[in-house]
Amino acid sequence: MSKKLLTLIFVIGTLTVTQAQTIIPRAAFVLTSTNASPEEEFGIENELSTGTGFAIGVGYNYTIGNIGKSVFSVQPELYFIQKGFNATTKGEMYEGEAIFDYTADQKYKINYFEVPLLARFEFGSGNTKFSFLAGPSLGYGLGGKMKGTLTLDDGYDTYKQDIESDIKFGDAPVNDEEIEDLYFDNRLDFGAVVGAGVTFSNKVIVEARYGLGFTNLSDDNDSANRTIQFSVGIPITLK
Fold first, then answer.
1. What is the pTM of this model?
2. pLDDT tens across 69-88, in order?
């Protein structure tokens, strides 16, 4: 085989690989929750509900080839994502001889760097293409905030107070008698992602994803993260 032919094959192969690589910056609105069940305590009501957050990052899509009528590719990603949940606690508290009904509304926002490794299948041709994706993910907890409002009612007057704590990972200090921070056991968040999307004219990708966490925030109870993402991405073909 001549050197010219080998050179031509190499160039064609290089162009094919280059055309099959895409960078996808994306931003998402995130619904965040947990699989925890409210703890039942005498005289205290606990309720958990869905919170909100956002995600922003970038994916790298590398086309492998055709499987049937679909185009198969792998897509590692790196992005910042907010997870967490909302909680409401109701009960009674005593201060001297006074009895207060209290309600604590709290929003937990926990920040992560997350790295999913996704398999992506794309169908269709022309200006509209449909895709399905799935794969494992690993998140690294950065910390976060709990913000909320404490409402006290003694039957005559109502008092409100803002409450706030930093969220950290690891063991709480043993000798600190007034710990204001909140501590979760597990910084790493292993999970899985599944989703579907639509690509319009190879310029905009709209996706919906579900994130299923397998790692509990606390070792003492079920407290794994759950997310639903609605995102927009801009595919940039590398040439």
1. 0.85
2. 899 999 999 999 999 999 99
